[in-house]
Structure formats: structure tokens, C-alpha cells
Fold these 3 entries.
Entry 1:
Amino acid sequence: MGGHYNDGLSATDARIELIRDWLASDLHWSITRLEPASADASFRRYFRVWGAHGETRVVMDAPPDKEDIQPFLHVGRLLERCDVHVPQVQAADAERGLVLLEDLGSTHYLAQLRGAGDVNALYADALAALLRIQVDGVAGAAELPPYDRAALAREMALMPEWFCERHLHLQLTPEDRAVLDATFEFLIGAALRQARVLVHRDYHSRNLMVLPVRNPGIVDFQDALAGPVTYDLVSLLKDCYVSWPRERVEQWVSGHHAALSARGFDTGGDAAGFLCDFDLVGLQRHLKVLGIFARLWYRDGKSGYLRDLPLTLDYVRDTAARYPQLREFSHWLGRRVVPAFLAANTRALAEARA
């Protein structure tokens, strides 16, 4: 499941004992081994467990005072209706915040994309699954909260607070705020104009598992909303952990637009308009991610994402330079953000290593 691996199990971790007791007493599982599978950027953790005959499952540990498992269960059911491969739920205990899941293995897309994986085949599978989610998940999207103005604005507000002020040590002036406010307003309008679908919100290489059948396995979908049709596409193709040449990205985007149209889905415009929508919603996402990655270090002590800030900022700068409506923002980035970035990231990485 997406995220960074834990180092080991604490003998004093009460949640581990709770998991062992739940598996043995409630589910009558004879456990031979239990070890960390992964953790994500929230309070959720995942553990792989081995049964007496070598079979494996994954336990999601979501402390109920910090995480609610109901959205995970609900969205999982919606995605199953779209005939995509999400981990099958075999048992759930909402009171204790525990879920027993099908084991989708430990090979995520990122490892294959950075290694010897067949990039075209992997993306073909991921795009085909996304198409089913978007077209067949229309009824499911109606059961989800909207990706509305408030949510879009709240996400982008993380960028000035955590990335600009905390990470870059910028003192934002009223003029800076005015540029950011105008940019955010433009991006909110662009996102709200798009056709609405079921949006995973983190449909990227760390949340797609490579499987021999019904590839990919899709995880970490509990924060899904009903939102812009290009959002998950940009998460996939302008991934914060791996990048591709612009020409290749445009081919994938054009192909996805054609596939949506062939399934009778009205995107609201032609291929060029769809690409513009893709870029603008991508800018909204990457501004949010700049804030989140910085917050994960300064608030939560998770330094791994600092190394992903340069690529995320590159995406922001590239999109800002492409559109005349973003010219002022592009100039602001070059004047205020870029000069401060390298020193700030170098400093934070040194602190993390200390």
C-alpha cells in the first residue's frame, strides 16, 4: 500500500497486541508471522500477516480516535462496482479500527516504472482502470461529497502556509497574497467547470500495485470525492514521484480523451480543451502537494517527501509558464520562490539527516 516502510514492530505497541488478539480470538486466524507492510501519510498503517498454511493477508490499522474506516469501506464498494481491482475486504471492525484485506503484494508501480517495467503496458492498464472508474462510477460519484470550492481553496492554502512561509522562510506581502489569491481563484473556476466523476485523489504510482491478473491493484482510495474528470489523470501522468516527457504525457491525455468520448462520456470540450483542463487542475494539485510535503516534514517529522519537492515545483513552474492567464504567477514564482528553494530544501534535508 502506498507510502514509506516502517522499521519494525515495537514490543510496547498496544495496537499490535490488539491486531494479534483480533485475528486469533475474533477471526480464528492462526498467525505464524506479522510484520509491517507499509505506512502512508496519515495515521493508518498496514501489516502483512501469514497464516498457518502460508497464506497472507493485510491488516489495515486505523486508530478510531484518528481515522474512520467507513469511507474506506464505502469507496471500496463503489470501486468494486466499476470492475477495478481493489483489495477485497474479508473482515472489518469499525470500533477497533481494523480491516482484514486481500494481499495485493508489495510491488507498486513506482518500483516497476523506475526499473525494468513495461511503461506502456503499465500505463495502458492504469488508464483502462481509470476509464472504468470515471464512466461506470457516475452513480457512485453521486454518493460522495463534492470536490467543491471550499475543498479546492483549503488545499491550495497549504502552499503559502507550509511551503512558502515555513519551508522557504518567505514573509508574504500583501502583493504576494494578491497574486496567490488571483491564481487560486482562477484555478478553482477551472476545476469547477469540468465534468464531474468519482475522483480517487491519489491515483499515482505509489497507490497502484503491479499484479499478474486484473492489474493494477488500487489502494489508498478512502478520500475519494466527486470532482474534475482530469484530476486522477493528472495524478497518474504528472506523478510527483516519476516524470515523463511532455510529448508522451500529451499522447496519453489525448488517448484518454478519445477513450472517454468513445464510451459516450461528454468531457465538455475537444482534446485541446481537455489538455488545458488537465494542466490547470494539475497546477491546483501540485500547489496543494507542495504544502502537504512541507507539512509532512515540519509537522509530522516525515522527511522522505522533501526529495519529491523539486519535481513538484517543476510541474508548477512548467504549467504557469504555458498559459497567459498565469503570467503574473509565473513571474512571481521566478522572483520569490525559485531563488529561495534550493537553499531551503538543502537545509531541511540536512536537518532530517542530523
Entry 2:
Amino acid sequence: MSASIVCGVDGSRNAAGAVVFAGRLSELLGRRLVLVNVKKVPLVPGASALPHAYDDLRNHAVADASDVLERVCEELGLADSVERKVRLGHPVEALIAVCDEEEADLLVVGSRGLGRIRSALVGSVSAAVAAQAPCPVAVVPPRASLSAIAVDSLQRSPRRAPTMPTRRGDTSRA
């Protein structure tokens, strides 16, 4: 599979900005949009002693992740053609695996804007995927939830050939 944009979704407001950006970009570039929600199966002390406890926790995590994806698609008015994937495990590893599976052209994630110190203490999914992803990564910062407007303006503006100065002060087209 190719020609896809993968977008990590955790259900937060910052992720919604990333989904809007990824959705508009996928429309503009004619790429499939694949939304991914990753959940960790919680570890509950003593659960291993109960029959089917892990299966129940796993099923609950999958259902919760599916609900997040459906809610995001509904709230943002995304078409049914948007692909949704649920993964269990660590967010960084799972997002990278989906990018590999999809042969993604781009990975889009939101940033919570925790700052350097808090990110160092709790980790940063956006920084880790940017460092490890097999494709380019767009990190949509918290205050840029309207960043899709930039994509819209690119789509509406007439395409012009870039101007290259041929001599000092000359900005005629090359």
C-alpha cells in the first residue's frame, strides 16, 4: 500500500488539530488518510489469577480505541472512506509499525506542548516518532489547530513558478 498519510489520534484537542491538518493535506495531495489510535492494555495486579481477565482488559482497550476514532471522525465530519486502525502497545512503536505497513508518505501527530522539562520527564511521542519514523513527520503544535487553513490557502492560491534572481536586484523569472 502506498500514497497514504497516517495520523496518530489520542482523542485530545491537540490531536484534533492534527487530524484536521492531515485530512486537508490528504485531500489536497490525493492520499488515503489512515487514523491510528494506540492503547496500552492496563496491568492490573491479581488479574492473571482471574480467568479471561487479560482478554477482557484487551477487548475493553480495543473498544475504547475504536470509540475514540469513531468520535473523532464524527466530530470532525470525516468521510466514511477514512481508514481507522486500532493498535495495542506503545504509541511510538505502533505508529512506526503502521507507517511501515502502509508505506506512508507522511506521519502527522499532535503535540501537547509540554515543554522541554516535562517532555524529558514523561517522554514525547511526537519527538520520538520524528526521530524514528520511516517517513517525514509533521508535528502540529497545540496553538496551530487551525493550521489546515494554511493548506486551504495553498490550494486556493494560483500556482506560480518560483522567482529566481539572475542578477543582484533582478527578480525576473528564470
Entry 3:
Amino acid sequence: MLAAGMSESSPAAVVGIDLGGTSIKAALVGEGYTILARRAVPTDLRSQGALLDAIERLVESVAGETAPAAVGFGLPSQIDQRRGLVLDSTNVPLEDIDVKAEMTRRLGVRVEIDNDANVACLAEARIGAARDARHVVMLTLGTGVGGGLLLDGELYRGSVGAGAELGHMSIDEDGPPCQGHCTNRGCLEVLTSATGVMAAAHRIASERPHGTLAAARAAGEDLDARFVIDRSRAGDTEARDVFTIVGRHLGVGIANYANIFNPELFVIGGGISAAGDLLLDPARAEYHRRALRSSNDAPVVAAQLGNEAGVLGAAALVL
């Protein structure tokens, strides 16, 4: 449990936790969204209890001698906000658990939780790429694909809080099976996440046996997202072709969201967005080819807050 409350003369500070399938990021955040301390650890996927233990230790580590006023959590999960209950999680072992009550008990401070893409969208709307916009669709491309919706200036969470699962729109009904607990096929998640990048890279390596990706694979490279991003930035044509494929898939999804929500702005974040315009340019082109004329002019921009969007958005829940 964290130390007892802060003195009246101490500046307000909270902890933001960004839980991902690969790592758990934490930040101690002060006034004006200033990050006072950062920590990150690999995500412990062995069990639900082990994961919660790791999160508790991380909160205490990043807080240090500071007693935070509250802790906000961005979770890769479907959440029943009426009860603070995590219903299901695609890439981490959290299911049917009252995370809000459990972490309040463990930490002894106020706790708020929300979907990780919702909190990233909240951060971008407050201090990032979507500042001053009132109608925003945000996608976070990483281990999975999260979605955040800002509609008329408010986060949209659906009837119970589990809405805006934008990564689980099927854009290819006969496509590859989705990952985690999703029973659908051809979801935006499986086609534009790290899984989608790797699949496209292996496809090109197989189709071009004398190419650079085939050579890298033969040399033992996994052709994972980080490798492909680095090669594409270095000018490798085949690695750039990977993002043309992934970008087209992304553009199909964006066109659908444009027709449904008619937003002012699309914000693309998450680790895969590090590919920049190599990903976004083909996505923009596909979106403009497909969207209805009335919904065809919303800019598609990269998130501004990078890897800090999750922790800052989680902190925003309690600031």
C-alpha cells in the first residue's frame, strides 16, 4: 500500500499506468501533465494474480517517496464502467475482475480505470494532436489495435463502458482469424497490428525469395514489427512495401469510421505508427478512395504524445 496522503504544501501528483501486451508503463504526473518520473517493466502474462502483483510493485516504484493523490489505469480491456469490472482482455490475463476495487484495496488511494485507447484519445484531445477538436476517432496500433472516440467533446464508451472496440471491425470476412479472445476473422486488429506487420513481411519474403526480407529471414530474423520499421526507415524497399499493405488495410478501416462517425480528425498512435507517413500515406489514399464524399476530408494525423499518451491519458482520468 502507498504511503499516507500528501501535505497541503505538496504539489498534486498522480500515477498513470499504461498496461500493454508487451510492457507496463508507469509515470508520476504532476500539474500541467508534467511527467515527474517514469518506469516500465515487461508485462507478466503468467496469471492474473502475477500481473496485478507486478502492477502494484510498479506503482510503488514510480511513486517513490511521493504519495500520489490517485492512480489511473489504461487497460487493453472491455470494461463495464458501471461496476469497474474488466469483462475481457485481448492480450493480457485480466477477465471478470473488479480491477478498480482490487487496486483501490492494494494501493489505498482513489483508482479510476478505462480502456487504453480511450485514455490515449483523452490525452491527445487535452494536450496533443486533437486539442480543441470535438469529434475524433483515434486508433492505437500495437500488439493489438485499440479505438477511442471523442463525440461532441465527450469520450464515448457505449451503454456499459465497453464500446469503441474499433480494432474489432472486420474488413475482410474471409481474412485471418483475429487474435486473443476475438472469434471474428479479418479484423482491423489482426491486419494492422504488430501481427499484421509480421504477416505482411513474411508474405513478401515468401513471394520474393531473392529479396531482402527473404534474406533477413534466412539469417534468422523474426521479421517482427520493430525490425520492419527500422528497415523501412533505412530505405529498404520491401520493408516499405509491408507498410503499403498494412496502410491500405488501415485506410479501409478509416473509410468505414469516416462514414459512420463523420469526425473532424483521425489520430493514429501506438508503436506501429512509428512507421510515419510510410504507413499513413497509403492509409490516406485508400480512405479517400473509399469514403463517402461528405466524410472524405477529415485529416489523418499521427499522435503527438507517442509512448507517453497512455500514461498521460491514464493520469488524466484522475487529474
